[in-house]
Write a structure and sequence with these properties.
Largest sheet: 9 strands, antiparallel
Distance between the termini: 42 Å
Oligomer: single chain
Order of helices and strands: EEEEEEEEEEEEEE
Number of strands: 14
């Protein structure tokens, strides 16, 4: 967690959702800089939350391992995640997944052709999938023996009935 604060109590937190190896900070008189690094990793994705706050009491709680981010919870999804470095953010019935290969709930399995970033909102009647990936996403949704193949373009969404 990196934090910039101002005299009036406002500020901005920069929070990494995946662990890093080091943070180097330098500078003085309000001209500080930081470098966040992950060592010995040929393929690594930084997943960063920019979290502005209007007073110091509303900052990210740095004393908690998985702090709440305005109601968004880190890695507490009701879905089971598959993927070497998969991460999730969940608030109510919406979950944002990063770096997933496959996700499962009690009655739904979604398999991705490649490592993917996607948002899922589940209602009583349908599941809404929105691609957050930089390229086309191909996935297979299986529910109660029925298989649905879906192709999503970046930023696009699809609603799939499942009951």
């Amino acid at each position: 967690l990196l934090r910039a604060t101002f005299d009036n109590g406002t500020g901005n937190d920069i929070y990494q959702l995946r662990s890093v190896d080091s943070v180097i900070t330098s500078g003085k008189r309000g001209k500080q800089w930081s470098v966040v690094a992950k060592n010995n990793s040929k393929k690594y994705n930084f997943i960063t939350i920019l979290f502005p706050f209007d007073n110091f009491e509303n900052r990210i709680d740095e004393t908690v391992e998985n702090p709440s981010l305005l109601g968004w919870e880190v890695n507490t999804s009701p879905w089971k995640l598959y993927g070497e470095n998969a991460v999730s953010l969940t608030k109510n019935s919406t979950t944002i997944f990063f770096l997933v290969d496959k996700i499962e709930a009690k009655d739904i399995t979604i398999e991705f052709k490649e490592n993917t970033d996607i948002q899922i909102k589940r209602t009583e009647k349908e599941i809404v999938l929105q691609s957050l990936h930089v390229s086309k996403v191909q996935l297979r949704l299986t529910s109660k023996g029925k298989v649905t193949n879906v192709e999503l373009l970046p930023g696009k969404s699809v609603a799939i009935p499942y009951k």
